[in-house]
Amino acid sequence: MNDIRPQEDAFDEAMRDRYRLATGHVSAATRAQLRQARHAAAIGDARRPRFSWPLLLGGATAAVFAVAFGLGLHKQALPAPDTAPTTAVATAASYEESASALEQDPDFYAWLGSPDAELVAME
Q1: Which one, of 85, 69, 65, 87, lies nearest residue 77 by Cα?
Q2: Is the pTM here over 0.70, yes or no?
Q3: What is the 3-state secondary structure (H, E, C) of 25-75?
Q4: Is CB count within 10 Å lower at the N or C end of the chain?
Q5: Does residue 70 form part of some domain?
Q6: Does a structural domain hold residue 72?
Q7: What tens digit of pLDDT does each residue of 39-80 get?
Q8: Coil, strand, or helix at residue 1?
Q9: 114 neighbors 108 (Cβ within 8 angstroms)
Q10: Residues 6+ positions from 108 with CB-CB distance below 8 Å
Q11: Calculated CA dihedral for residues 110, 114, 117, 121, nearest 10 degrees
């Protein structure tokens, strides 16, 4: 069996040597800046995030408008219970009256065969 552990150890040691060589060439000013940045980052993580009142108020306002909008849509979606059946009945009754009037009028059928009816149909 091939054991790759010695290869990994040799690679790790070579990388450590390169790191030591690279850190030896970094100036003192750069090291100080890096140290300050590391220290500021460590303190920044320890602080507790502040509570944001504007976010809370904005979210509450959005929620109120969403509820109001939803209730408004709900009221518009419901048809009035008394108007729908009477409209359907009135429409059916008027249709029957007009149909019976046309059935009894022979002039209507004569007009359907005339060129005037074709002109009306083309418009």
Answers
A1: 69
A2: no
A3: CCCHHHHHHHHHHHHHHHHHHHCCCCCCHHHHHHHHHHHHHHHHHHHHHHH
A4: N
A5: no
A6: no
A7: 988 887 556 667 788 888 999 999 998 988 888 776 655 566
A8: coil
A9: no
A10: 102
A11: 120
Domains identified in the chain, total number: 2
Q: Are residues 108 and 102 in contact, defined by beta-carbon separation less than 8 angstroms?
A: yes
Residue 33 lies in a domain: yes
Looking at this protein, which amino acid is placed at residue 64? V
- Within 78-114, residue ranges assigned H as helices are 83-103, 106-112
Which tokens sit at 14? 């070579």
Q: Residue 115 domain-assigned?
A: yes
Whole-angstrom distance, CA of residue 24 vs CA of residue 15: 14
Q: Which two tokens stand for residue 46?
A: 């320890």
Q: CA-CA distance, 27 to 18, in Å (whole number)?
A: 17
Residue with tokens 């249709």: 95
